[in-house]
Amino acid sequence: MKIESPTAAERSAIFSWFEGYLTQEHEALGRGNAVCPFVEPAIAAGTVVIELARLEDGDGLAELCAVMRRQTERFAALDRPAGKEGLSTLVTVVGGLPEHRFPLLDEAHRRVKGEVVRRGLMIGQFHPRCPEPATGDPRFRVAQSPVPLFAVRAMAMHDILFLHSNRATFQVYDERFGDHYKDGSKHVDERFRELYDKARDRKSKTSPYIDYQSIDVLLSLQNPRTDHPAEMTFYLAGQVMELLFKMVYEQALAARVALVEDRADQATWELRRLARALDLLTAVWDVLNAISPMEYNAFRGHLGHDSGIDSYMYRMVEFILGHKSEEMARRHGGVPGVSEQVYRSLHQSSVYDEAIHLLERRGVAVVPGEDALPEAWARVYRAFGPADDLFRLAEALTDVASAFHRWRAWHLLTVERMIGGKPGTGGTDGVDWLRHAAEQRFFPELWRTRTRLWSPGEDQGPTPVDRTGGP
Predict the structure, then answer these.
(1) Is residue 188 a part of any domain in this protein?
(2) Which of 46, 176, 263, 399 is most exposed, with minimal Cβ within 10 Å?
(3) Do both 138 and 257 map to the same domain?
(4) 183 & 139 share domain
(5) Are residues 208 and 280 in the same domain?
(6) Tell me, what DSSP letter sits at residue 468?
(7) Structurally, how many domains does the chain consist of?
(8) Rounded-to-integer distance, Cα 263 and Cα 241, Å
(9) How far apart are CA 74 and CA 110, in angstroms?
């Protein structure tokens, strides 16, 4: 895509649109000023620069994003008349964009807007089919223009109209213009003040669903590093996994509490949900398996040293289930707000610890020795059946261990499918490291117990446990 100067006819058409539409009032806006209050003073100040970005054959979304970023950089370097810096704007007409490709301009704007706003700037896209709604009346498509273009300018007071609904963009606005609202000034437009106050006070929202689950915050937290569409899938899948890790962790905590309170069946119920959450985690790999190696390689280089090995929520899940490692905890040392959580999980008793304590309280003696725990669980299996809560607890723990192993195994296969034998981004040995991890089992004594159980007619082993003294 090349940057050129527009012809006199092209400039004239743009200014005619400015003066005949953007500087005029429109009843659908519900306010008594221009469609864009910024344009008229900018024209009067002579601070409007118009350029033409001409598409080349094969240019698409990636090139549109790139030219938006390049023009944002160019805007920051423009000479501005003293005292009129806030009125400066750079309009870029997109030449050679076929009508059926106009939606690419909308998508490029969606991807780039957050970056531009974080710099204290604004960017808007316009074209004959632009779907952008007016803030006063969402039925009115306010950003339709005779030719496709986008504009970059400095953020202004009235941009509360466009930035109030997203917490991240509102925060940038608040840092620049918050003082105008806090000093009780009577010069602030009442509509601006109303939107500002609503953005500051999230309790004033009108949707209980959004409030209850903070949906607006959740959906504003996606910031991939490239424009490759597969990266957004990768990014969201990672966030989904982190949320599910937290779900698993919370369920594990609930199971742990139930065990401490001698409520084995309640613990089993919590572990049942935990195993289902692990099934969901495994299913996320199915989505990631739909990313081809070439798609992944297109953005992998931008991940730097980012790696799932540094997921502290995953580490806390391992710890609460009983697989503890001081070495892995140290990876999170010195990270404020994180290291404390990780070490707390490392040091507290695990679900498995509390399950063993419950066995002891129920009279299933765990005698010292290497085979003590497998033998204790074997005594539970020999003595009791599905009607017994300790039997159901043992099977629920095994369900969790099985589900976690499936997640690890599918992780290994997905990574091998994507990168083969390449090193991992976090400095690990890649699939070799994952293969070693996949061989680990939670609650290993429960697995070894199976070897100790006999078929009918075989030696039945030690006498079944006496539960008469248990609660």
Answers:
(1) yes
(2) 46
(3) no
(4) no
(5) no
(6) T
(7) 3
(8) 29
(9) 20
Regarding whether 356 and 236 lie in a shared domain, the answer is: yes
DSSP annotation of 59 reads: -
The structure's pTM equals 0.74
12 and 92 part of one domain: yes
How many helices (H) and strands (E) would you count in the chain? 20, 5
Neighbours of 410 (CB within 10 A): 19
Find where tokens 């892995």 sit. Answer: 328
What's the burial of 156, exposed, middle or buried (CB within 10 Å: 0-12/13-18/19+)?
middle
The pLDDT of residue 49? 93
Give the angle 334-343-241 at the CA atoms, nearest 5°. Answer: 90
My answer on whether 179 and 111 are in the same domain is: no
Q: What is the pLDDT of residues 290-302, one digit of tens each?
A: 999 999 999 998 8
- Please state at what angle helix 229-260 crosses helix 351-361, rounded to 10 degrees: 20
Q: State whether 435 and 313 are in the same domain.
A: yes
Long-range CB contacts for residues 394-397, cutoff 8 Å, separation at least 24: 394/446, 394/449, 396/267, 396/268, 396/271, 396/272, 396/275, 397/271, 397/351, 397/352, 397/355, 397/442, 397/443, 397/446
Spatial strand order of the sheet with 121-126 comes to 2-4, 48-54, 89-95, 149-154, 121-126
Q: Domain containing 186: what range?
A: 170-218
Q: Is residue 236 part of a domain?
A: yes
pLDDT of residue 202: 60
Beta bridge partners, 94, equal 53
Asked if residue 459 has pLDDT above 80, the reply is no
Look up the CATH number of the domain holding residue 250.
1.20.58.480
| Burial of 28 per CB tally in 10 Å (0-12, 13-18, 19+) | middle
Question: Within a domain: residue 462?
Answer: no
Residue length, the chain? 471
Question: Per-residue pLDDT tens for 204-224?
Answer: 555 788 888 888 788 888 888
Convert the pLDDT of each residue in 238-275 to its tens digit: 999 999 999 999 999 999 999 999 999 999 999 999 99
Check the CA dihedral 8-10-13-14 and report its sign.
negative
Helix/strand/coil for 428: coil
DSSP 89-151: EEEEEEET--GGGHHHHHHHHHHHHHHHHHTTEEEEEE-TT--PBPSS-TTSBTT--SS-EEE
Q: Could you read off the pLDDT of 17-59 as tens digits, one per residue?
A: 999 999 998 887 766 678 888 899 999 999 999 999 999 888 8
- Helix pair angle (372-383, 351-361), 10° resolution: 60
Q: Note whether 214 and 239 are same-domain residues.
A: no
Residue 163 lies in a domain: no
